[in-house]
Amino acid sequence: MTLGNPLRYLDTPLRRVNAVVVTLALAFALVYPFLVPPPMVGVGFVALLYALRNFTWNIAGGYVGQLSLSHIVAFGTGAFSVAVLTWRHEVNAWIALVVGVVISAVVGFLISLLMSRFGVNAFFLALGTLALSLAAAGVAASWSFLGDTNGISYSGSEEGFAHLMWYIDPSGFYYTTLGFLVVITIGTAALMRFTHFGRSLPFIREDPVIAASMGVRVVRNQALAMALSMGLTSIAGTLIAQYVQIVSYESVLTVEIGVAMMVGSIIGGAGTLAGPIVAGIGIAVLEEFLRSFAVSSANVSSYTQIAYAVVVILLLRFGTGGIMPLWEAGVRRVFGTGRKPVAPVAAEPVGELVDGRVG
Amino acid sequence: MLTVANVAKSFGGLHVLHDVTFTAASASITALIGPNGAGKSTLVNIIGGVLRPDGGAVHLDGEDVTGVPSATAFAKGITRTFQISGNVGALNVFESVAVAAYRQARGYRRANALARAELERFELWEYRDQQLGSIPTALTRLVDFARAMVSRPKVLLLDEVMAGLTPHEVDLVIRQVGTCREQGVAIVMIEHVMQAVEALADHVVVLNQGQVIASGSLGDVSRNAEVVEAYLGTPASERDDVRVPAEDPAKGQQ
Question: How far is A138 from chain B (nearest CA, A)?
Answer without folding.
Answer: 39
